[in-house]
């Protein structure tokens, strides 16, 4: 029984040893395979070293290329940025050029009106002179109206006086005809028939004369009043027309004066705008804009 156990253990040990031998055989084969590979590598050493040298050089060139590529990208970005800045500056100057040209066109159109405006102003001055003559005519008509009013007033006063005197004469005549013991108004003596008739005749003649004067006065007064009414109507119409013409002339003169001032200012500004335009064109011709950016662009390029 003991031998069987020992035999079993021996067999088990033999199996383990066989397995161990197999493992060692595998390792030896692996080592031999690696050794063969190493020998092959050693045999290819010059080729490998040459390849590695080429790889190192290629890597160096690639790194250098990547570095230059990065620098080139930065330079291109900088160039694009500078180009945009220069284009913006040029566009701004071209805009200023267009604005200056438009301004010059406007100023030329305004300033070219100056001779015509001055001619119109001279015509307006002639119209003012005519209005001055109309004012003088109006003044004379007013003076004539005042003189007529004075005459009418005098005639009305004279009418009242004549009517009163005629009334007084009539009263005296009535007294002479109704009183038998009439007395002389100067000496207070009684009047005889002849003296009474003589006085009555004198009063009657005086009354008739004053009546004729009154009629003449009334005729003249009526005529003067008609003349006054006609003259006042003419004066009123003339004054209204003169006021309208003066208001119109003043409005035109004000507008002309303003337009002439604007035209004169335009002529003065036109010189400045042309100088400004010439300066802008000179800058454009010389590319004298964004100078710092252009210098930087030359350095980049």
Going by CATH, the homologous superfamily would be Helix hairpin bin
Strand content: under 5%
How many helices in DSSP terms?
5
- The total of beta strands comes to 0
> Termini separation (Å)?
103 Å
Rounded to the nearest angstrom, the radius of gyration is 69 Å
CATH class: Mainly Alpha
Instruction: Give the helix level as a range of percent.
Output: over 70%
Largest sheet: none
Low-confidence stretches: none
Instruction: Examine the secondary-structure arrangement and name the CATH architecture.
Output: Orthogonal Bundle
Report mean pLDDT, rounded to a whole number: 82
Find the structural class using helix and strand composition: mainly alpha
Summed up, the domain count is 1
The dominant shape is rod-shaped
Looking at the structure, the CATH topology is Helix Hairpins
- Element order, helices and strands? HHHHH
Pfam family, one: Rad50_zn_hook
Organism: marine sediment metagenome
Keywords: ATP-binding, Coiled coil, Metal-binding, Nucleotide-binding, Zinc
Biased composition (Polar residues): 211-220
Report what the structure shows:
- The protein has one domain (75-300): Orthogonal Bundle (Helix Hairpins).
- The chain has helices spanning 2-43, 45-111, 114-178, 193-285, 291-300.
- The model has no long low-confidence stretch (mean pLDDT 82).
- The relative contact order is 0.10.
- The protein has 301 residues and is mainly α.
- This is Zinc-hook domain-containing protein.
- Residues 7-41, 72-179 form a coiled coil.
- Residues 202-237 are annotated as: Disordered.
- It holds the Pfam family Rad50_zn_hook.
